[in-house]
Amino acid sequence: MSDAEPRIDFYVLAGAEDQHRLHFACRLIEKAYRLEHQVVALTQDAHAAASFDELLWTFRDGSFVPHELLGTDNPASPVCIGHLQEEAAGGDLLVNLSGEVPSSFEGFKRVAEIVGGSETEKQAGRQRFSFYRDNGYPPTTHNVS
Length: 145
Fold this sequence. Notes:
By secondary structure, the chain is an alpha/beta fold. It contains three helices and seven strands; from the N terminus they run E-H-E-H-E-E-E-E-H-E. It has a seven-stranded parallel β-sheet, with helices on both faces.
């Protein structure tokens, strides 16, 4: 694997609730922001992006993660939130909250795939895992309880 190829990390959560998955994503994004990384979080659609935008402002008392929705003319925030139908230019970390492999994943240094504990989430996660592995991007799995 060359330096230009992204590192793929799967975070497999024990909890099946979507809120658990989204809160984990918020904590991961907050950590990356504090390390001064450029982050893009992609959701399934515009409604989910707007909901996650709101959650990132409120997920924890005392937390501040400056962010904005993709699609603004000149995004200046270190964290942007979008959805699969939008083009993400690239950056340090892509947090995938959709059920599909984003077409822009190769433009990032790292991809974080967050998989919830429901059977639907696990099945979609397995398909994404196979895609990355079969296309020469060996993923690493982290089991999170």
